[in-house]
Amino acid sequence: MAENVDMEVEPTIMDGQFIKEAKDAAKSVNIIFSLNEAVGALAESLKIFKKHQVNLLHIESRSSIKVPGYEFMVEVDSTAGDIEGALENIKQESSYFQIITRNYKDNAEAVPWFPRKIQDLDKFANQILSYGSELDSDHPGFTDQVYRARRKEFADIAFHYKHGTPIPHVSYTEQEKGVWKVVFNNLTRLYKTHACYEHNHVFPLLEENCGYSADEIPQLQTVSDFLKSVTGFQLRPVAGLLSSRDFLAGLAFRV
Questions:
Q1: CA-CA distance, 57 to 78, in Å (whole number)?
Q2: Which of 79, 81, 86, 137 pairs with 172 at a CA distance of 20 to 30 A?
Q3: Could you tell me the pLDDT band of residue 90, with boundaries at 50, 70 and 90?
Q4: How far is residue 247's CA from residue 5's CA, in Å, rounded to a whole number?
Q5: How far is CA 244 from CA 15, 36, 143, in A?
Q6: How far apart are CA 49 and CA 47, in angstroms?
Q7: Span 8-64, pLDDT tens digits
Q8: DSSP 8-class letter at 243
């Protein structure tokens, strides 16, 4: 299934699909558990993680709405230690135990991970089905190294983007602007007879507010700012195709 690509990333299986894992992908598992009430119970549970040489990245407590007492949310570093053994021991000591992870289809007790705040989109935005710089062998630009390098530039911008930072400005070449102009002029000529009412109603707003014109390729940040001001939605770049689940998770935050 895998293709040879010029990326220093390893393929992985996630949600039953073959994807490439981002270099900065979160390599952790989150668990929520409530301990059987006893003095020093939390301290004893932390010893379990130490026994199995498992590193904890984050821990917090809150009043439980499922069982009497408190429950603890722990983020576990899944790159080292006996994770399975530690989780099994914690489960035995808990009155309530649940795993929250993206790999939920391989674990009947797990709850599918989902973003709780917009910053969480960074955790999966690069968990892509195919990287933007990749091309099939029948693509017209497959053997064009200049074209492939340019595609990779754009994909890398998206790959390293983080929520809250400006979308990088792209300086387009004269050749790219020339192609845009030809496409822009031909499409705008056809809009009146071939585009839907909604498109024809909105497109003049993009020309007026976002710099859409035959001579200028709009910047993604400019379009995103305008979109957010009138609809509440915003844009973020991604480096390739997202799974349906991740795409819809972004829409949940109007992204």
A1: 10
A2: 137
A3: confident
A4: 24
A5: 11, 39, 30
A6: 5
A7: 333 333 333 323 333 334 477 788 888 777 677 778 888 888 999 998 888 877 766
A8: P
Place of tokens 């009497």: 68
Residue 28, token pair as written in the block: 């952790």
Cα–Cα distance for residue pair 83/107, rounded to 1 Å: 14
pTM: 0.59
Q: Torsion angle, CA of 2/109/45/84, rounded to 10 degrees?
A: -40
Give the pLDDT confidence score for residue 188 in this predicted structure.
96
| Tokens encoding 85 | 């053994």
Rg (CA), the chain: 24
| Cβ atoms within 10 Å, residue 39 | 7
Task: Confirm if 243 and 15 have CB atoms less than 8 A apart.
Answer: yes
Phi, psi of 221 (to 5 degrees): -65, -40
DSSP state string for 187-210? HHHHHHHHS-HHHHHHHHHHHHHH
Residue 81 contacts residue 54 (beta carbons within 8 Å): yes
